[in-house]
Amino acid sequence: MQVYLDHAATTRVFDEVAREVIKVFTEQFGNASSLHSHGEQAKQIYESARSKIAKHINVLPEEIFFTSGGTEADNIAIIGFLRANFPEGGDLITTEIEHPAVLEVMKYLEKLGYSVTYLKPSSEGYIKASDFKKAIKKNTVLASIMWVNNETGVIQPIDEISKIAREHGIVFHSDAVQALGKLKIDATLVDMLSASGHKFYAPKGTGFLYVNKSIKIHPIMFGGGHERGLRSGTENVPGAHGMATALQIIEKNYDLWQKKMLKFREKILQTIEKIPNHHINGENTIVSHINVSFKGINGETLATALDMRGISVSTASACSSHHGSSQSYVLKAMELDEWIVTGAVRITLGYDNEEEEIDYFNQVLLEEVERLRKLQE
């Protein structure tokens, strides 16, 4: 049996989304910037997608800008805002547990003369709003804090941090790549928000950035002036339509699917409880995420053993693998014991998982942990 439990890395495109995207590719293929009827048809699909996505996160259509994914959206939000408003420098606040799409941007900005404060998470994986408040300086102009952590699934206190940021006139950006489609999101809590289609059953290479209409932002890439001048490049009509379709499907089935995932989560946690010397990493997580370590077993070794039996899980995030380390910088930032950091595996459920898959995973997990521990004796 093949079991996919790495939905935080990417998701399978919904069948209906795939059909809709192919239809646009092959039947409604016009350039949305063209003035003829083919172009106008494509433009209507494109703008309809923008409106549907905006409604999903409670913002205005003109506040949605389509991108190629979360990384591009993060870069435009942070660099574009600073170019437009504080080109000479300023203080920024982020966290030690952000996705590399934010952390690498911050490192780049430090080289340009900006100062950056990196907030440390608690041992449970969340950022304390009180720590955020303490970090504010007279020249703090921007904060970027993820909505949900990609490795642990911990939900960050966005509402509390938002209130503090607004009290101090700080523009607040959130990378919501792991949140959208898994939580009901009100993007008006923040000033800018990034999302990526392939995390919520839409095609890869799609994403969007929400920018509150009161925020001044400059492009970081130049060309034909698409997306009201912020993001040049021929409009990806099939991709935008795919994202909107996926979110509509999730909206329709959200409560039922969340209930199903909660049931599967509980079954997995009950199995984990049967295994001595384990540690669940992170508290107050989204339903889909379980990050767990088993003492005496390397996370990569366990992930490989599960893979050999048809089960896909991960250790650190997929994007972290490009930085030459499979160990989690997120768990290190949480200051967990070494065996927890080296032994962690990330199990992430999806809306398309079935109960027999979970039963098979539980059986194999028990067997492989026992087998690997015996090898250590």
From TrEMBL:
SUPFAM superfamilies per UniProt: PLP-dependent transferases (SSF53383)
Q: Catalytic activity annotated for this protein?
A: (sulfur carrier)-H + L-cysteine = (sulfur carrier)-SH + L-alanine
Organism, scientific name: Pseudothermotoga lettingae (strain ATCC BAA-301 / DSM 14385 / NBRC 107922 / TMO)
Q: Note the Pfam families from the entry.
A: Aminotran_5
GO terms for molecular function, please?
Answer: cysteine desulfurase activity; iron-sulfur cluster binding; metal ion binding; transaminase activity
State whether keyword Oxidoreductase applies: no
Gene3D superfamilies per the UniProt record, alphabetical:
Aspartate Aminotransferase, domain 1, Type I PLP-dependent aspartate aminotransferase-like (Major domain)
- Domain Aminotransferase class V: from-to ranges: 3-361
Q: Which family does it belong to?
A: Belongs to the class-V pyridoxal-phosphate-dependent aminotransferase family. NifS/IscS subfamily.
Q: Which cofactor does it need?
A: pyridoxal 5'-phosphate
Q: Which keywords annotate this record?
A: Aminotransferase, Iron, Iron-sulfur, Metal-binding, Pyridoxal phosphate, Transferase
Stated EC number for the protein is 2.8.1.7
**UniProt key word Lipid metabolism:** no
Q: Which InterPro entries match?
A: Aminotrans_V_dom, Aminotrans_V_PyrdxlP_BS, Cysteine_dSase, PyrdxlP-dep_Trfase, PyrdxlP-dep_Trfase_major, PyrdxlP-dep_Trfase_small
The protein's superkingdom reads Bacteria
Membrane-spanning segments: none
Recorded protein name is cysteine desulfurase
